[in-house]
Amino acid sequence: MYFSQVRIRTKIQQSSELHRLIQGNAYGIHQLLWNLFPNRNIRSFLYREEIAREQLGVQSGVKGEPIFYLVSEERPAVDDPLLKVETKVYSPKLRPGDTLAFKLRANPVIARKCAGRKNSVRHDVVMDSQRNLLLELSSMLGLHGTGTKSELKKNIVDAVNSSGNRQVRDKLQAVINENERFRYAREPEINRQLAMALKAYMDKNLEKWLLNKAEANGFELIRDEKGDRLKFQAESYRWHHLPKKGKTAGFSSVDFDGVLRVKDPGKVIAVLFKGIGPAKAFGCGLMLVRRV
What whole-number distance in Å separates Cα of residue 214 and Cα of residue 233? Predict the structure, then answer.
């Protein structure tokens, strides 16, 4: 296996609009990187996109252009006319109990059986968790529970403000308290309390998703010194449109980072190469690790 750092060549940046054309273009980025490998029949790499200045600091010629990290089965071409490629052999050695800091950009989804369908349907963890909480609150208030997420939120806030429903306020605080990262938050206004509860509920469901992936892939998340909370955070939720697949087609991504402990070295090494979750062709799934 190989680990590579890939950047658009300086002269190309200065003389063309390539970096502008690929910005936010998942298909274009994937094709650009795929061209680095001679065997293009099968995708044999994972990648993650970052911003060069955030990764390399203040260096001559470094601005806001993308920088890509790749893990691949094949050695990528280093003489590409568009891309500057720096690569090295990637052969991690791990033992049970090793502690690693990790970064993971993933597409967190859950599969659920639906009536009338033979196969399970994938649901975005973030949107699914927030909608489920909104529907539960709507039911508590005797609302129909239909409409967009914004409409559901507005209806809930209006209903609580007009009725002074204490049960809903208590439910929201309970949701907040269930998440150790939000436990001491208090919001006197219903709209702010609802927003906090939705965030805490989403965060807790992302934690569950990652814990399930950890169990299946031979590692565990580490708690802080007091044991109060996991050393992990999930942020930067984004929706990426894929217009070639349809007007509403796309996928979400969430950035996870934290600290893990190796339980099964073989499984962890395998996941460093094969990735976690779907949307791997579009920059998700690659777990970057370093020893701590």
Answer: 14
Quote the CA–CA distance of 108 and 217 in Å, as a whole number. Answer: 15
pLDDT in tens, 176-202: 999 988 888 888 899 999 999 999 999
Residues 74 and 110 placed together within one structural domain of the fold: no
In the chain, the amino acid numbered 77 is: A
Residue 19 contacts residue 6 (beta carbons within 8 Å): no
**Nearest CA among 61, 43, 116, 16 for reference residue 280:** 43
52: Cα within 13 Å, side-chain hemisphere: 19
User: What is the pTM (predicted TM-score) of this model?
Assistant: 0.87
Task: Quote the domain boundaries for residue 187.
Answer: 101-291
87 with 29, same domain: the answer is yes
How many CB atoms lie under 10 A from the CB of residue 215? 11
